[in-house]
Design a protein that fits this description.
- By secondary structure, this protein is an alpha/beta fold.
- It is built from 9 helices and 5 strands.
- Strand 2 (about 20-25), helix 2 (about 25-30) and strand 3 (about 40) form a beta-alpha-beta unit.
- Helix 6 runs antiparallel to helix 7 (about 145-160).
- About 30% of the residues are buried.
């Protein structure tokens, strides 16, 4: 796997006007705050956007961002497999905001969607707790739920993948509306 080009928040900020920024987080995460001018193309929709990203990369350098940098590294690797060079923002949107750079908060009617890693931690903790409680109250076999989640978390850390995040990204609040994705692709074509 290729190691993607990385830009620090400071480097990206100094070049933001010359970059096409693609945010690969879920629409809910994107709506909670993103880099100015970033286009939301969720990681699971990247394949659909490849032709438009390829054309955009011919005109401007591509910067891929997510919350912490993990999904954007995966996206950069996927783009590299298709001959598209892109950089990732080290530390993601979190590092960008921590440096005091502007984060755009579109009007989302007060609805805030948790970052995917927070959704995963909450769900994993809930399943583990549920497994332990059911194991004490109903039958010890329910503790297998807790063991299964623990094994999944270990596998996730070792492989830098997350099946639970993939499942959670399919929930309605994490899915892009077709019109939103089409609008992002149209803006990408216009850049």
């Amino acid at each position: 796997m290729n190691t993607p080009i990385t830009l620090s928040a400071r480097q990206a900020h100094s070049r933001i006007h010359e970059l096409t920024v693609i945010d690969v987080r879920t629409p809910g995460e994107y709506a909670a705050g993103h880099l100015p001018g970033a286009l939301n193309i969720p990681l699971d929709q990247l394949r659909r956007a490849l032709p438009d990203i390829r054309r955009a990369a011919e005109r401007r350098d591509i910067l891929v961002v997510c919350a912490s940098g993990a999904r954007s590294r995966n996206a950069c690797s996927a783009l590299a497999e298709h001959g598209i060079s892109a950089a990732t923002l080290t530390g993601g949107t979190s590092a960008w905001a921590a440096e005091g750079h502007e984060v755009h908060h579109p009007g989302n009617a007060g609805r805030v969607t948790w970052a995917m890693d927070r959704q995963v931690r909450f769900t994993a903790g809930l399943i583990i707790l549920l497994g332990l409680l059911l194991g004490l109250i109903v039958h010890p076999a329910f503790q297998v739920l807790s063991a299964g989640v623990a094994a999944g978390l270990l596998f996730s850390a070792m492989t830098n993948t997350c099946a639970m995040a993939t499942v959670l990204s399919k929930l309605p609040h994490n899915r892009p509306r077709a019109t939103d994705l089409n609008a992002a692709l149209a803006r990408l074509r216009d850049r």
